Amino acid sequence: MVTQPRRVVQPPEHVPPTKARVNLLVVDDDATKRFALRTILAPLDEHVVEASSGADALRQLLREEFAVIMLDVRMPIMDGFETAQLIRQRPRSELTPIIFVTALDQAETDMARGYNLGAVDFIFAPVVPAILRAKATVFCDLYRAQQELRRYRTQLESLVQERTIALTAINRELEAFNYSVANDLSAPLVAFDALTREMLDKYGDKLDRKAKGNLQRMRQSSERMAAVFDGLQMLFRLSSGEIRREQVDVSALAGEVARDLKNANPGQKVEVGITPGITVSGDKRLIRILLTNLMSNAWKFTSGKAAAKIGVGCEIVDGESRVFVKDNGVGFDMIDSHRLFGAFQRLHSQSEFPGAGIGLATARRIVNRHGGRIWGEGAVGEGATFYFVL
After folding, report:
1. What pTM value is reported for the model?
2. Out of 2.40.30.200, 3.40.50.2300, 3.30.360.10, 3.40.50.300, which CATH number does the structure's domain 23-127 have?
3. Is the CB of residue 136 less than 8 Å from the CB of residue 23?
4. How far apart are the C-alpha atoms of 315 and 381, rounded to whole Å?
5. How many CB atoms lie within 10 A of CB 355?
6. Rounded to an integer, what is the distance from CA 72 to the centroid of its chain?
7. Residue 1 predicted with pLDDT over 50
């Protein structure tokens, strides 16, 4: 039995991607010189276009874009300097690099005039092929890079336009949803809550314990749903409208919020300390809502403390001014910190600390609208501190 030799298949060689060819314009009234320049530039494998006069060069520029123009200084009728001046007057070619190629020596050439007309370089005869190719290569690669950037910019503009259209559609849906919450859902819920309250007031004494308990739970559920709807509407309102920045006295606003919380919760004793003189640049209305949510959050989670404390202060870290709201309440496990600012995310049960779970989400939305950041730090049983930077 004869064993046939196995055929080894060689993997295909990696073929580098071919680069796009670009246009180079050679302008000279002497055909021999144009041929010489074309021959020198041939190894670059670019598209070399010839023009026999300044007028011919301008016609070529109407048809094509060029990575670089190599322009003879001495030409009849319209010399290189006059041609360069007209090239620069055309918006399409006002930034195209121009290299003057001349048989004159440096003493005879008005180089200052050439540079004033936008020349990037001068090359004097006899031309050194390696130098000319090196300079042409630089401008060809630069042109290709600019074209690539232009392509990316076009794609980015198209993507931004698509995202804008999508966001506009989403905002319209949110508006419709907000309208539905405000009217179609909230109104029946208010009527339901009023009906159960009326039944408890009128017939509460006549109902047995089970029926009365069911009505009370129905009322509690409707109140929670109403709080959720209010939170949704609040988040929607915070997503629209202009930010009107001004210097805001955070200390004064915090004092007002503290007084409101004490009046709303007269049975809860909380020691509130506010550092005077805290100011930020922001929308006063939104910052008040921000402080209300953070301080209400602290007030709620210190409700079980015999000596509850809440502090509002400011600190500067690495040149950054940070406002904070601190409490000595139940705190939280930092493992769960990623859930703090999500809408309707709760780290404690409804029976322990009632609420809609929207306060910190609202706080983050306000800070984001100011272009800032917010975060929380805490430990279980040791309180929590929420920082924000606007």
Report:
1. 0.49
2. 3.40.50.2300
3. no
4. 24
5. 16
6. 49
7. no
